[in-house]
Specification:
Among the domains are: about 60 residues, no CATH class; about 80 residues, Sandwich (Immunoglobulin-like); about 140 residues, no CATH class. Helix 1 crosses helix 2, helix 1 crosses helix 3 and helix 5 packs parallel to helix 11. The protein is globular. The chain contains 22 helices and 25 strands. It is α/β, with parallel strands linked by helices and about 725 residues long.
Length: about 725
């Protein structure tokens, strides 16, 4: 019998995965001791020697047992154990234990119980609380006394639904389709050079007109909106939103501001707006600078109106501040500090400002209260405009409505990490192991959350994140959903291939998300592409989380899978934001772009990929014809007809949700993102749509792509 070393036992207890099977499904990659020691060090655990590892292991085990109760417990309502708790008794298991218990449900009055119990063989004491146990966030406080010693403990008891809401429950329909768009790409006659929340409202209405059930958007998380800091998947905060998407003209105070009308009517601003609207790419720096200039004027009007009355809007703002609490105050402080210091990277700030609890930050909050108030108001107005857009979709008959996207991580220089330093791990980054796209693995530069710290904090950050992501939404996509189960951590100074997976409390995280989804009546989709452990897909299905199915990947060898073979519990799409558009794929433009930016190193390699693409196109035509989406396996007379045939094919699958990329609907050829390519070589996240929102309903090519007969009302 093999005896595990203290290092291996410690790494396993903490959650470092010993080995994983790579994307080929054949090769097993083993975690090295060097990687174990490096990851443990980032968690503040010295395992540099066998003795150090043994001592650390004993400390962790002792700390966990000394707690009368774990700090948080997540349990399904249907689990028989939901109505019970387990205490840690004294070390001497033969002692009779006197206990008192106080239970405070999320709603309702607390009650108390007390008694005497003998610990079980494993040293625990089981106590019944309430049966049946309602779903929600409850509090348990216990005090135990034995042999003259008294110990107390508190627990957040989170009782969650057994399963996520289904498409049928939310919409009353078995299978639906909708649109998926990158909001910043939208053109319109009125926006300021970037798609905004008014454009989103129009898109939601049009989706209803064509029989759709939802509109999915890129993450709306807060960004710096400057230079290269424009990726929606590397946000400043995942809890708060991006002011870039505000429509200044839709702010209620806009109609009452004579100064604003004069400003917008000036030739200087008018010319600037025309230039920004006409550009082929979003100029984040100029757009956000102009919007913030105007929004400051509007905030001044809002403040002045509030001082003279206690109207409905002022009361709504007060309630918003109360509901968002300290997290909003800290975020607004971060934004104000970034403006004041001149950089959004808090790691470059003077030392006194790097700690949100420092006296210097407290003094700044007093002296710059107006600036902090402005950034708080921006979030209030974002929430209002997003709610208005969602309401337009609801009135248009969308069964799901707005479908938001949750990024896997947050920027290392961002507000979430500055405000919650105890939750994030320094010296290690989230990434991906070696695969077909990157032989060396991928380092995304995103600091991971410490799963132990997250649990010790009662999952409060995750709860806030889930609520923010589901607000005004009928569906939520979890980017890289495997990150709820395990994340690939790459220690600083190591190659991607030297990383290791860290386990996460998936059942707890999914349970909390299910509770919030239940309260918002929202469907949840997990992006489960790439290297995925075999236990993840069945776990997601067990919870009722929809899988992701992408046409480009749905193949058996060189042939595309039949529509009937798609996973029913899934969202089926032709592509994702990381992949070529249908038109780009068909024309081979993605291959040309990769050659231009150096992702393909030679003309010979590009020619080989082009030859392979010819065969892929033929295989796709065969599949479309076999499944009845095309009359015969020949290239259609137009690109729009081909794209429409792909959409018809997807709608013939049993997938409960089908998403049409708006890029494919309008026939975009250029990609929106080239993963891993720096902005000086390719400007990801900036390309706009060629067709304005106002023209979608009348464009014949657009209408030709909207083939989804089986799913229209």
């Amino acid at each position: 019998m093999r005896i595990e070393s203290p290092l291996h036992l410690l790494a396993d207890l903490v959650g470092i995965v010993t080995r994983y099977v790579d994307q080929t499904g054949e090769e097993t990659r083993v975690t090295t001791d060097q990687t174990r020691v490096a990851i443990l060090a980032t968690l503040g655990i010295d395992a540099s020697t066998a003795d150090a590892a043994r001592e650390a292991l004993e400390r962790i085990e002792s700390r966990e047992w000394e707690r009368v109760l774990p700090p948080v417990r997540v349990v399904r309502q249907g689990d028989r154990a939901a109505s019970e708790i387990q205490l840690h008794g004294p070390e001497d298991r033969g002692l009779l234990v006197e206990w008192s218990l106080e239970f405070t449900p999320e709603t309702g009055e607390s009650f108390q119980r007390s008694g005497l119990s003998q610990p079980q063989w494993n040293g625990t004491i089981s106590l019944g609380i309430r049966d049946p146990m309602p779903i929600g966030y409850h509090k348990v406080r216990v005090t135990v006394r034995a042999a003259g010693e008294e110990r107390s403990g508190e627990q957040s008891l989170i009782v969650v639904p057994d399963i996520f809401p289904s498409v049928a429950e939310v919409t009353g329909r078995e299978r639906v389709f909708g649109l998926i768009a990158n909001l910043y790409t939208l053109r319109s006659a009125a926006n300021w050079g970037v798609g905004d929340l008014s454009d989103l409202g129009r898109l939601l209405e049009w989706a209803g007109e064509i029989g759709g059930a939802f509109v999915g958007v890129n993450p709306l998380h807060a960004l710096r909106n400057q230079g290269a800091d424009v990726s929606p998947y590397s946000p400043v905060s995942r809890i708060f939103r991006n002011p870039l998407y505000l429509d200044p003209r839709a702010v209620p105070e806009a109609g009452d501001s004579a100064h604003l009308r004069e400003l917008l009517g000036s030739a200087t601003v008018g010319d600037q707006l025309e230039e920004l609207r006409g550009a082929d790419r979003v100029d984040y720096d100029r757009v956000i600078a102009l919007k913030l200039r105007v929004l400051r004027e509007l905030h001044g009007a809002f403040t002045a109106a509030g001082e003279s009355s206690q109207g409905e809007r002022t009361q709504a703002y007060t309630e918003f501040l109360r509901a968002q609490g300290e997290p909003l105050r800290l975020f607004a402080t971060f934004e104000a500090l970034a403006d004041h210091i001149g950089t959004g990277n808090w790691r470059e700030w003077p030392e006194a400002y790097r700690n949100p609890g420092s006296p210097a930050v407290a003094e700044f909050q007093k002296s710059q209260a107006k600036e902090i108030e402005f950034h708080s108001w921006l979030q209030f107005e974002l929430d209002r405009q997003l709610g208005d857009a969602a309401a337009r979709g609801e009135r248009a008959g969308l069964g799901i409505g707005l479908y938001q996207d949750l990024a896997i991580g947050t920027s290392p220089s961002g507000a979430d990490i500055w405000a919650n330093p105890h939750l994030f791990v320094e010296g290690v980054s989230i990434g991906a192991p070696p695969d077909d796209y990157s032989a060396a693995g991928q380092n995304w530069g995103l600091p991971p959350v410490n799963p132990w710290a997250l649990r010790d904090d009662g999952y409060r950050y995750w709860i806030r994140l889930a609520r923010a992501s589901l607000r005004h939404s009928g569906a939520l996509r979890i980017d890289h959903a495997m990150g709820l189960f395990q994340q690939f951590w790459i220690p600083e100074g190591m190659e991607g291939s030297q990383g290791a997976y860290m386990r996460f409390p998936a059942e707890d995280l999914l349970g909390i998300l299910a509770l919030e989804a239940h309260r918002h009546q929202a469907v949840v989709v997990g992006e489960d592409l790439g290297t995925v452990p075999p236990d993840v897909p069945p776990a997601l299905r067990r919870w009722g989380v929809l899988s992701s199915r992408v046409l480009y990947f749905e193949r058996d060898g060189d042939e595309y899978r039949a529509a009937a073979e798609y996973e029913p519990m899934s969202l089926a799409t032709a592509n994702t934001h990381d992949m070529p558009t249908l038109a780009g794929f068909w024309d081979g433009r993605d291959i040309e772009v990769k050659r231009e930016v150096g992702m393909i190193e030679s003309d010979k390699e590009a020619e080989e990929q082009s030859r392979t693409r010819v065969q892929e196109r033929k295989a796709l035509l065969r599949r479309l014809a076999t499944d009845g989406a095309l009359a015969k396996a020949e290239e259609p007379s137009s690109s729009a007809e081909l794209r429409g045939a792909v959409h018809e094919f997807l709608c013939r699958t049993p997938a409960v949700m089908v998403g049409f990329s708006l890029d494919d609907v309008v026939g975009e050829v250029e990609p929106v993102n080239l993963p891993g390519v720096p902005p000086e070589r390719f400007a990801s996240w900036t390309r706009k749509l060629k067709t304005p929102v106002e023209a979608l309903a009348s464009d014949p090519d657009v209408l030709a792509t909207l083939r989804c007969g089986p799913r229209r009302d």
